[in-house]
Design goal:
The structure is a single chain. By secondary structure, the chain is of the alpha+beta class. It is built from 15 helices and 19 strands. Strands 1, 8, 9, 10, 11, 12, 13, 14, 15, 16 and 17 form an eleven-stranded mixed sheet that branches. A four-stranded antiparallel sheet has the order 4-5-7-6, with helices on one face. The relative contact order is 0.16. Keywords: Signal, Transport.
């Protein structure tokens, strides 16, 4: 039976390979899922009203203010509440804050939900909100969360009202408090337990309470009956890591998990067709791109070369052949569904001939050799990109890194740590284009590899302007500027894809955050 299933998996890959072969691409052979390899969950723990979820990795820490990655937040958001929240309708909704308003250009006032307590009984009030934001901003916390960069201080107005003061007007501050920047932590418990004790046994106000965490195995949570929104439908929630399609399939088939999240389209294709496995797809906003090092000497410092790369990479073909159609082309970094997307900005035309002409004009008639760095999770996409670039004469050797090494280099202060060209993606969880631009474009930002005074000026407008129309224009001008200068190769926004067995019922929002309070299971 297992051999038959492997053959079916190989058959499914043929159309995708055929498209690539016709395009002259080089793509490594797909890996058929080795069945029933080890997975992270314990099947014996699965009886009853327990929802088991897996994603590609394990959280970095249980301290929500000391991590900045979606894998960690996907788990932590179930134990902690934020001030605001993004609904499935893409709109901002109340959470711990019932309302908010801009008192003046540098002050946002938040009115809090009454009667909320942390899991240890501690009151969640304005003092807790002030403590949480100030802890996040304290350099001693060493938080990687950057969204609150303009927050200067927080003042308590009364028990359920706080004012957040900023150095500059921050028009989307309430959006930034809907996830990473908006988590509220318990001041009294942190004073008693210390940072280490808090991370060992986290206490929040969220719909689930912490039970235990066995790193790289499982995080177990229990329904919090006194949550302000009501008790979750499931008794227990278990997160476990499944780093690839093979382990995801094994976990689903063994009953170790009910829902697999974070699947890349090519990984999902490997799960398609197996008995008891259903794939669900939803429009997503996670956006992929190639970052080009324009700062150091070499071909990429010439915009004609960078434009050539954009003409050479046939994104629609890439989406069809490698991603199974589970993505949408992005014209210039900002995805559809996010504030700032301009439908009048069109993607590059795909033309190898134009690419070769631009390379020749830049002094590279025979192309050039370079390196394309990627996480090994994205190996198929990286190899396909290399194949597309090769058609224009750009010989890009693919350098694959394990996710941990890739992430540490990405967030390092060395802008060349990932080489001249690297494949990256960002989840725009605020649904505002600023989230995509903030770390990559302005010349003083962590991942910026393009210095442009005009881009800096436009970033300042879209980040700080009070007028939404002014912000919209700045975003449009910025996207047109990025198309002219091409500091990135613009790729696609991915669908959110989930594999599940017959038990769970749950629907995500556009950012794909794994907030599971509304989920149900049936056995």
């Amino acid at each position: 039976m297992e051999r038959i299933r492997q053959e079916r998996a190989l058959d499914r890959s043929r159309p995708r390979r055929d498209v690539l072969r016709l395009a002259g691409l080089v793509l490594p052979a797909l890996t058929a899922p080795p069945l029933l390899a080890g997975c992270g969950a314990d099947p014996a723990s699965g009886a009853g009203n327990v929802l088991r979820v897996s994603q590609p990795g394990d959280p970095v820490t249980m301290d929500p203010q000391k991590q900045g990655d979606m894998v960690s937040m996907n788990a932590l958001i179930n134990m902690f509440d934020t001030l605001t929240t993004r609904g499935r309708d893409n709109k901002l909704h109340p959470r711990l804050a019932l309302s908010w308003t801009a008192r003046d250009e540098r002050t946002w006032r938040f009115t809090l939900r009454p009667g909320v307590r942390f899991h240890n009984g501690e009151v969640c009030d304005a003092a807790a909100v002030k403590f949480s934001i100030e802890r996040l901003l304290d350099p001693r916390t060493k938080s990687p969360i950057v969204e609150l960069r303009y927050v200067k201080s927080v003042s308590v107005v009364d028990r359920l009202t706080v004012d957040v003061h900023t150095t500059l007007h921050d028009p989307i501050l309430p959006d930034k408090l809907s996830l990473f920047g908006g988590v509220v932590v318990p001041p009294r418990y942190l004073a008693e337990a210390g940072d280490q004790g808090f991370a060992s046994h986290p206490v929040g106000t969220g719909p689930f309470t912490f039970v235990r965490w066995q790193r790289d195995h499982e995080l177990r949570m229990r329904a919090y009956p006194d949550h302000w929104a009501g008790r979750p439908h499931v008794d227990e929630l278990v997160f476990s890591p499944a780093p690839n399609a093979s382990s995801s399939l094994a976990a689903l088939q063994s009953g170790g998990v009910d829902l697999v999240a974070g699947l890349t389209p090519d990984a999902a294709q490997q799960l398609q067709g197996y008995t008891g496995v259903t794939l669900d797809g939803f429009s997503g906003i996670r956006t992929s791109y190639l970052s080009l090092n324009t700062l150091d000497k070499g071909p990429l410092s010439d915009r004609r070369v960078r434009q050539a790369l954009n003409h050479a990479v046939d994104v629609p073909l890439l989406i069809k052949a490698v991603l199974g159609g589970k993505a949408r082309e992005v014209p210039a970094m900002i995805p559809r569904g996010a504030f700032g997307f301009d439908p009048s900005v069109k993607p590059f035309t795909r033309s190898v001939r134009t690419a070769r002409e631009l390379l020749a004009a830049a002094g590279y008639p025979d192309g050039f050799s370079t390196t394309l760095t990627a996480s090994n999770i994205d190996s198929n996409v990286a190899e396909a990109l290399s194949g597309l670039l090769a058609k224009a004469g750009v010989r890009a050797r693919v350098d694959l890194l394990d996710p941990g090494t890739y992430s540490s280099r990405l967030t390092s202060a060395n802008h060349a740590a990932l080489g001249p060209m690297y494949l990256a993606a960002s989840t725009i969880w605020t649904l505002d284009g600023e989230s995509m631009i903030q770390s990559n474009v302005r010349s003083d930002r962590r991942q910026s590899r393009w210095h442009s005074k005009e881009a800096d000026r436009l970033v300042d407008i879209e980040e700080l302007s009070v007028d939404p129309a002014e912000r919209t224009k700045a975003f449009s001008d910025l996207q047109r500027l990025m198309q002219r200068e091409a500091p990135f190769v613009f790729l696609y926004q991915l669908d959110n894809i989930y594999a599940r067995n017959r038990s769970p019922r749950w629907k995500p929002g556009p950012a794909g955050v794994l907030a599971m309070a509304s989920a149900e299971v049936s056995r």
